[in-house]
Amino acid sequence: xxxxxxxxxxxxxxxxxxxxxxxxxxxxxxxxxxxxxxxxxxxxxxxxxxxxxxxxxxxxxxxxxxxxxxxxxxxxxxxxxxxxxxxxxxxxxxxxxxxxxxxxxxxxxxxxxxxxxxxxxxxxxxxxxxxxxxxxxxxxxxxxxxxx
Length: 148
Prior knowledge:
Blueprint: H1 7-17, E1 20-25, E2 31-34, H2 54-75, H3 82-95, H4 97-101, H5 104-110, H6 114-118, E3 126-127, E4 130-131, H7 133-147
Antiparallel strand pairs: 1-2, 3-4
């Protein structure tokens, strides 16, 4: 599979990530900049005090997106609709490719249990062991997009 995120999928991810030109702690001690970037294209981690421009935000987002598209393309072994792909890229963008690769969501999906996979999205609504309203909203939106 060699899918790319649709324009609406990119807008979906950006709507949840937001945009910050100054590095911030994501609430779990991970420094983040732009639209959810935690590592620059050169591999260096974002750190407190870092700043970027709008153009850099777009560059970082594109770089991050390709990594997560590649992860979804390589991990998923069943056919996907564009909406399913976009939802999975959004999920991986937020929780990381390693978490996707070890998830029950992926196991169910790869066994062709699409409905069961969709039902796994809402379970990923915690950060630092606490339920987060923003993550609950995002996971429900990803599940709806996946089922669309």
